[in-house]
Each structure stands twice: as C-alpha cells, then as structure tokens.
Amino acid sequence: MRRRNFLTATTGTTAAVVAPIIAQHSVGTSDVIRLRSGLDSLMELDDSRGGHEGLEQAALAGAGEALDKLSKAASQRIRLRLFSIAADYTATAAWSALDARKLAKTNDHLHRALYLAGMAKDPVVQLRVWNSFAMLAHQRGLHTQAVDAGYAAQSTAITRRDPFFSSLAHARTAIGHANLGDRQAAIRSLGYAQEALNKAPSEDPRPSWIAFYGVAELTAMTAIVRDRIGDSAQAEAASHQALSGIPQQFRRNRALATTRLALAQLHQRDIDQACVTASKALELMAGGPIPGRMRSLVGDYYRDLITLAPDADIARQWGDRYRTEWSRS
Description:
single chain, Serine Threonine Protein Phosphatase 5, Tetratricopeptide repeat, 16 helices, disordered N terminus, 3 domains
C-alpha cells in the first residue's frame, strides 16, 4: 500500500512539475514570427551586398534553429511552419552560394531545401527552389536542365493560386529557351510571364525573397532573352526601361541590369558607350566585394569586348580597370 501511494504521489508531483515546464518551453506562433523576421533581415542584406559567406552561414544557422525547435512545437501546424522556415532559410543559403558562384554548395543546399519544403507542404518554397535550380543549371551551362527546372516551377501549386509566382516561373523558363536558341519558345514564355503578371493582384502579401520581382525585373529578364536571341537593340531598350524601375535598394540587381545594358550596346558594336555603361555597373558595387555571379557576367562582357574590339584604346583601358576590380573582389 505504501509503495502504491508513493508511486501515485510521485506521479502526481512529476506531472505537476513537468507540465509548466513543457508549457513554458513550447514553441508557438511568436517563435515562428521571430524566426521569419530573421529571413527578412537576410534578404535586405542580399539586396544590397549580394551573396557571401557570412550571409550563407547566417541562413544555415537560422535553418538549424528552426529544426531544433521541432520537438517542442505546440502543434502540428507549428511543426509545418517550422519546416517551412527551415526550408526558406536553406533556400536563402543556396541563393547566397549561387550568387557567389559556389555551385557545388548551391546544389547541396537546394536539394536539402527541396526536402524541407516537401516536409512543410509549402509550394511557395518549392517554387523558390526550382527557380534557383534553373539559375544553377544556367550557370553550369546545362540549359535543357534549366528549362526543365522552369517547368517544375510552373507546376507548383502556388502558380495556380497566384499568377505573380507563375509569371516568375515563365520568365525563368524563357531564359532557358533563349540559351538553347529556341527563339519561338522564348518569346512565347515571355508572353505568358507578362500575361500572368498583368493578372497578379499587387496588394497580396508575399515573402521577402520575391520582393525583387515585378514589372521592372521582368523587363530586365526580357532584356536577357532578347540579347540571347540576337535582338540586341530591343535588349538595350528593355534594359533602359528596367533600370528606370528597379528600386535603388536593389543595388546588386541594378548593377546586373547595367551590365546587361552594356552587353546589348556592345553587341551592336557601340564600343565606347558600352565601356562607359560597364564602368557604371562596377561603380554601383563600389565599397565592397563584387558577388561571384556579377563577376562572371562582367567577365562575359570583357571577353566579348576583346573579341569585337581587340585593338580599341578604350577596350584596353577598360580591361585595365576590369583587372583592378577583379583583384579587389
């Protein structure tokens, strides 16, 4: 009898002590909101500086923190939101590695992010990951895979609910088609992207990672497509239009669009103006290292420059500056 009474008393006391501890440490909505706000801060840093090691590591730490809280989630709904946050942080790490042109690390992070997005049942993050897979394939020169990733992005559930996301998926696919030299498919995809963007409600709340996208960014992507399929004059016009609309805080994106403008001018043999424009792109990133993705694009410009005008004085002068900027990075 005494033993039974002891067990009963002990069990009751343990329950009384443990219950408040569990309640005190359970993870709920406020924790989810705090973790989400950290994502927004990282995206602000990316908008200004671009991808770099510090941003990648901070994003991975955020993903780790979200996953560590799973066992203490107050409900299944909170668990799904934590998986979603971990997926988004991991996709942010992938994006940072991609922008820095660390392609093997990008691939690893994207596969992890896709798994976590599946666990979260989050189609928005799934679209984000496929969009980055398309960009990774492009940087590796695997343009058929880039188109396939674009189609995968188009098939995510969010594109049926929000044409804004559908527009980005079609625009990314258009670039893949252009890189394959499929002019008709590229222009058709651009048309789908524009049509979807026209239908997208502008007031709907969306995650911070896609804040870069809109009319100006679609126009910048149109410039890429047009230059790749040989319509350099139209690419130049689209680049000017894009730069008039890309917000100032998106410094890296403005520098990329400016470099695209320089390429379009160069491909029309306007060597002097192209070099002036390309110098402006470097000036936009002054004060910090140039992200690897932009360095690669500037390298493309320089290779085209010395191919088209190997003996021009301005080409040699620009090459000297390019090598200086490269060593700074």
